[in-house]
Write a structure and sequence with these properties.
The complex is a heterodimer. By secondary structure, chain A is mainly alpha-helical. Chain A is 45% helix and 3% strand. Chain A has helices at 11-32, 66-77, 81-98, 119-122, and one strand spanning 60-63. Mean pLDDT of chain A is 65; it is low at 48-53 and 105-125. Chain B has a 5-stranded antiparallel β-sheet. The model of chain B is unreliable at 1-11 (pLDDT under 50). The chains are: A mainly alpha, B alpha+beta. The A-B interface holds A 48-50, 52-53, 56-66, 69-70, 72-74, 76-79, 84-85, 87-88, 92, 95-96, 98-99, 101-104, 114, 116, 122-123, 125 and B 1-3, 17-20, 25, 28-38, 43-46, 80, 96-106, 108-109, 113, 117, 120-121, 123-124, 126-128.
Chain lengths: 125, 128
C-alpha cells in the first residue's frame, strides 16, 4: 500500500495494520479449519492376570422355556452336586461314628438315600 | 455347610496383586444369561434372593429406559448375584443374568435337611 494514497497514515502504521489483519486472518482460518489432534499413545492390550479384575466378559446366553428354567439354572449355577451335601452329611456321620453310645445307628450306607443322585426328581418339588 | 469362604478369598485376591486361585477364577468367570418368555419378572430358580439395587438402563427403543434389578443370594457366605431386566427389543422376554456358583444346596434341599442336620448336631453333643 502506498503511503501517498492515504496521506494521514504513516508506513509503520500501515505495516502494523497489515500484520494485524494477517494475524486476524490466520486466526479466523484456524477457527474454521480442523487440525489433527496429536495421537494418544496406543494402550497395550491388557494380558496380565490383573485384567481379571476388569469388567467380566459377556455371559453365555440361553433361551429357555419357563418350565425348564429352574433345572437349567440349578445345573449351571448350583453347587457341585455330590460334593457339598455329601461333605456336610459325612462330617456329621464321622461325629456319630466316634461314639458308640450314640443312640442312632448311622452306618455310612444310609446316607446314600440323601445324596443327590436324581436331580431331575428334585425339581418337581 | 461348605467350608469354602468365597467372599473372603476374593478379598484376599486384592492383596495378592489381583492373582486369583483357580476356584476364584471360576467364580468370576461363571456368568450365565437366561432369556425366558414370562409375564413375571421374578422366576423361581430354587434359591432365595434379596434385592440390593435398581437402575434405569438407557434404551435406544421405546420405552426410553428399562428397569434393571440387582439381587444377591440370601445364603450366608454365598456370593451369587443376579440381574433381572426385560429385553428392549422384545418386552415379553425376561433376561436373568447369574454371576457365580452357589456353595450350598438349593432351597428345597436346605429346607428338608436343615431340621435333620440340627437334630444330628444336637445329638452329637452328647457323644463328646
Amino acid at each position: 500500500m502506498e503511503a501517498t494514497s492515504q496521506p494521514f497514515m504513516s508506513q509503520s502504521y500501515l505495516n502494523a495494520q497489515e500484520t494485524a489483519t494477517r494475524a486476524t486472518k490466520n486466526y479466523l482460518n484456524s477457527l474454521h479449519s480442523t487440525r489433527k489432534q496429536p495421537s494418544k499413545p496406543l494402550k497395550r492390550p491388557v494380558t496380565s492376570s490383573i485384567s481379571s479384575h476388569s469388567k467380566p466378559m459377556h455371559p453365555q446366553v440361553y433361551r429357555v422355556e419357563p418350565i425348564d428354567f429352574k433345572e437349567l439354572v440349578q445345573r449351571l449355577t448350583g453347587a457341585p452336586e455330590h460334593e457339598v451335601v455329601a461333605k456336610s452329611l459325612n462330617s456329621l456321620d464321622d461325629a456319630a461314628k466316634e461314639s458308640s453310645s450314640f443312640a442312632f445307628d448311622l452306618p455310612s450306607s444310609s446316607w446314600g438315600d440323601l445324596s443327590l443322585q436324581n436331580p431331575a426328581n428334585l425339581s418337581r418339588w | 455347610m461348605h467350608g469354602y469362604d468365597s467372599s473372603h478369598a476374593l478379598n484376599h485376591a486384592n492383596n495378592r496383586n489381583g492373582l486369583l486361585t483357580p476356584n476364584e477364577k471360576a467364580m468370576k468367570k461363571s456368568r450365565f444369561a437366561f432369556r425366558t418368555k414370562s409375564d413375571k419378572d421374578i422366576l423361581d430358580d430354587g434359591y432365595r434372593w434379596r434385592k440390593y439395587g435398581q437402575k434405569s438402563v438407557k434404551n435406544s427403543l421405546y420405552p426410553r429406559y428399562i428397569k434393571r434389578s440387582y439381587y444377591r443370594c440370601t445364603q450366608h457366605m454365598c456370593n451369587v448375584k443376579k440381574q433381572v431386566q426385560r429385553l428392549s427389543k422384545e418386552r415379553s422376554i425376561v433376561e436373568t443374568t447369574y454371576e457365580g456358583i452357589h456353595n450350598h444346596p438349593c432351597e428345597e434341599i436346605m429346607q428338608t435337611l436343615t431340621p435333620l442336620l440340627h437334630q444330628m448336631k444336637f445329638l452329637s453333643n452328647f457323644t463328646s
